[in-house]
Specification:
Blueprint lengths: L3 H12 L21 H7 L5 H4 L2 E3 L4 E7 L4 E9 L5 E6 L13 E3 L3 E9 L5 E11 L2 E13 L4 E2 L23 E2 L12
Parallel strand pairs: 2-8
Antiparallel strand pairs: 1-3, 3-6, 4-5, 4-7, 7-8, 9-10
Length: 194
């Protein structure tokens, strides 16, 4: 028979956002430092391998796909604490392309879920492979690989041939014409026409 506390925990877990949803950013952030005596005691607790089973992240890896140079791509890495104690979750980012990500600690309450904002921006075209580490109560628990194909900003002319013909009664200096361009990238492409 399931006890009342376990039923309440299951109800809270069902109400929280989906753990694997990396597109929707979780706006609620937990406080960065423990403020109560109980929280301070909890975050100093060494977690055994059996207890670490009750910690989870939404995805095992993040593939950003094709992104343009200088564009910012945001994802949310969700961290769930299904323990009965608060934990301190800290993201460790050692890569320049991810330095805009939130790396503050969060004191995640029992049965709580924290959203960790991941922001990727690269200033060179490359096949990016990196990782972020998640430290819980002082020990590294998760390593999440991140991949992206960073491509240059492209700007394409849809019509490759432009033919200009003048009507027989034409006396003007200019002919109006519509030319279409396409920007298949995820970043604005500024241009000038002369």
């Amino acid at each position: 028979m399931i006890e009342r506390d376990q039923k309440e925990m299951i109800a809270r877990v069902k109400q929280r956002p989906q753990l694997g949803d990396i597109i929707r950013l979780i706006k609620h952030k937990y406080k960065a430092q423990a403020t109560t005596a109980a929280e301070q005691k909890d975050i100093r607790t060494y977690l055994t391998p059996e207890e670490k089973v009750f910690l989870s992240i939404g995805v095992k890896s993040i593939d950003l796909g094709r992104v343009c140079v200088f564009s910012k791509v945001q994802r949310s890495l969700n961290f769930a604490n299904d323990l009965q104690i608060s934990v301190s979750a800290t993201v460790m980012i050692l890569i320049q392309e991810l330095h805009q990500s939130a790396s503050k600690s969060q004191i995640v309450s029992p049965n709580g879920m924290a959203g960790i904002d991941i922001v990727f921006c690269s200033d060179i075209a490359q096949q990016f492979v990196g990782q972020i580490l998640i430290q819980v109560n002082g020990s590294i628990v998760f390593a999440v690989p991140i991949r992206a194909e960073v491509i240059p900003i492209s700007f394409e002319l849809i019509q490759y041939q432009i033919s200009v013909s003048y009507p027989p009664s034409f006396n003007g200096r200019a002919v109006p014409m519509i030319i279409y361009f396409q920007n298949p990238s995820n970043n604005p492409a500024e241009f000038e026409w002369e």
